[in-house]
Amino acid sequence: MGKGKSNETFTHHHENGKSLEVALTRGSGSPTDPWKQPGSNYPSTPGLLAMDDMQKFSHIVPFQNPAEGTPDAGLGAFEYELFKLQQPHDKDVSEQKRQLALSVTRRFFGRMKANFLGFQTVITPSYSHLADFLDCHVNNAGDPFATGSYLSQVKFMERAVLDYFAAVWRAEWPHDVRTQKADNSSKMTLVAAPENPSSYWGFVLSMGCTEGTLYGMWNARDYLSGKIMLMDGHLAGECLLECHTNGYHSNGHSNGNGKAGSYFVNADHERAIVEKLTGTVLRSPTKESRTPICFYSSASHYSIRKAMVILKIKTFHKVATKLNFPAPKGFNAWPTEVPANEDGSINVQSLAVLVEEFAKRGYPALICFNYGSTFKGAYDDVGKAADLLFPIFHRHNLLNRSFYYIDEKGEERLVKRHGFWFHVDGALGAAYMPFLKMAHTHQMLDSDVHIPEFDFGLRGRKTEHYDYSDIEVVNSIAMSGHKWIGCPVPTGVYMTKTKYQIMPREKPSYIHTLDTTLAGSRSGLASAFMWDYFSRHSFDDMMEKAVHCHRMATTLAGKLRALNDLVERRDLHPNLSPPSLWVCHSPLSLAVIFRRPNKAIMQKYVLCGEEDFRHGESRKLTHVYAMEHVTLQLVDRLIHDLSQDGAFDLDA
User: Cofactors per UniProt (predicted)?
Assistant: First the structure.
């Protein structure tokens, strides 16, 4: 044994009574040995390998099928052996084995691409002409609108992509770069107040829409809780004061001379200052006024809940149950999420009832809307929600709220903000629907279905009692670039407005740009892929693509309903109980929902499953997404397979 090393023996006991004794080697620079047989309980990937591959490739990957376990367990172990990298006491990976592993992977993708139907992804992107970009590290570190010191980047492409979506999402563009800092300054103060605070700001994501939703909720939390935003910098300098109300305390930085310090204020003092600056008598600020409450529907993506945990944002259900609020009107108890309609869109009437219960108690509202929900592809009507919610916000003084801060000269400054934030999770729909709407305007669509608005052009409406038409409805939008657009890597776009930008915590001298985005290093390839796609596809191309996908979804729904007619008449699958395929398709959705077929069909077409209890019974469902690669021939293959005996035998 080499110097500095020590061995420990660990015995792992199997359920069958056998035991495996392994040595754990620790020491200076020594890799550890496995604590159990590696790969013995790893899952197998459906369709990657077949049982006869174990024999066929045995001359390259010597392998003995474990005596116990299912055939899948054997495939999982063999899969591990084929793809494992060099481990302690092993030889390095041979070129023959490496090439076999790559060949098996290519075969796998070839089979999968031929039948891929179940997810919001274009599975056949075409970007091989950008292969030379893979021979360079491309990193868009820092703010998209500041070049910085790291020059192996394509921010010039990123800015073009952002301008493209700003126009499509009816934002005010270009971004007002007066908010950027002078290159020779490390201070956080603004160079100048923006000429147009409503101009957009955003960045291309390195993950999917989850990153955009996480950032949007962070953005909303800071805005609604009264934290200093970037726009306040020309007033507050380095001040990061967060006021304390009714003993509720958060830290601040200002002692009147521009240097870091502490400033504490009580509720009466704060109210007196706000009344002096506004000339309006206000009720005492409370901790509720700085506690955003999140509302999202039962059809929302799981990333919403994950983001709330990361950011410690409170949900209406948790707060209401913890504080024993009475059940809201029309509910026997507090729901865990805002109810969704049959088509998967948020029930705006229920949303309004739930929001008012918190608005009347002074809580600001963070509302996450879906524009293309994950399973049913539904589109929340953001405009209709605003019509119901704005009078509620008005009634409870949440349309406009006042905060004050101490600037670097020690003077009191007033900032006005809304008491709500509307975030749109447009992972699929924010890329697809603008072009379907363009197509509708150009009379390229057969149907005349209402297309709900969701973007930055949306404004409140004038009512009999109040004019809300000058109030901007949407605060932030996130979109996935690997879904309808078809980028080969997870990516997307996050966009808000300059006036809502988070105050960055620092300006790292290492990259010489403000740290305004979520990640430090950001994928430059993602921006290059999206720029390339839109440079090759005109608005006309995008409209034609949108119409094709819309018609394919309608065609698929029609074929499934025809199949369902046979089932209901007992002419097909007579033993199916109840005799229905539960076909569901909303007019604008690219998703068509139906009864879940057997495992073989699910795997062949890469379908996903969901269980619905809405109708007083458990319905096991799946869906098909009519993405760009879906053809009539592929749809007909699916219909043929669903027509065969045993197609819906879930025990098969």
Answer: pyridoxal 5'-phosphate
Nearest to 425 by CA among 345, 371, 382: 371
Alpha helices in 279-428 (DSSP H): 303-311, 316-322, 348-359, 382-395
Supply the DSSP symbol for 364. -
Q: pLDDT band at 251, cuts 50/70/90?
A: very low
Measuring CA to CA, how many Å separate 57 from each of 51, 78, 82, 94, 111? 11, 10, 9, 14, 19
CB 368 within 8 A of CB 294: yes
Which tokens in the block code for residue 453?
């608005």
| Torsion sign across C-alpha atoms 153, 496, 431, 422 | positive
Task: Output the six-digit token pair for 399.
Answer: 């349309």
- d(Cα 384, Cα 452) in Å, to the nearest integer? 9
49, 75 contact by CB (below 8 A): yes
Whether residue 642 has pLDDT greater than 90:
yes
Q: How many CB atoms lie within 10 A of CB 152?
A: 11
Task: Kindly tell me the sign of the dihedral angle through the C-alpha atoms of 265, 269, 270, 276.
Answer: negative
DSSP string, 392-434: HHHHTT-SSEEEEEE-TTS-EEEEEE-SEEEEEE-TTHHHHHH
Q: Which of 530, 364, 390, 401 is nearest to 472 (CA)?
A: 390
Name, in order, each residue with C-beta under 8 angstroms of 380's C-beta and a sequence gap of 6 or more: 297, 345, 346, 348, 369, 370, 371, 373, 452, 454
Whether the per-residue pLDDT at 394 is higher than 90: the answer is yes
| pTM (predicted TM-score) | 0.87
| pLDDT band at residue 23 under the 50/70/90 scheme | low
The per-residue pLDDT for range 72-119, each reduced to its tens digit, is 667 888 899 999 999 888 889 999 999 999 999 999 999 999 999 999
Q: What three-state secondary structure class fits 69?
A: coil
Strand order in the sheet with 591-595: 591-595, 619-625, 609-612
Distant-in-sequence, close-in-space partners of 335: CB < 8 Å, separation ≥ 6: 298, 317, 350, 354
Spell out a b/e string for 203-235, using b for 16 or more CB atoms within 10 Å of the CB, else e.
bbbbbbbbbbbbbbbbbbbbbbbbbbbbbbbbb
Read off φ and ψ for residue 370, nearest 5 degrees.
-105, 135
Phi, psi of 218 (to 5 degrees): -60, -45
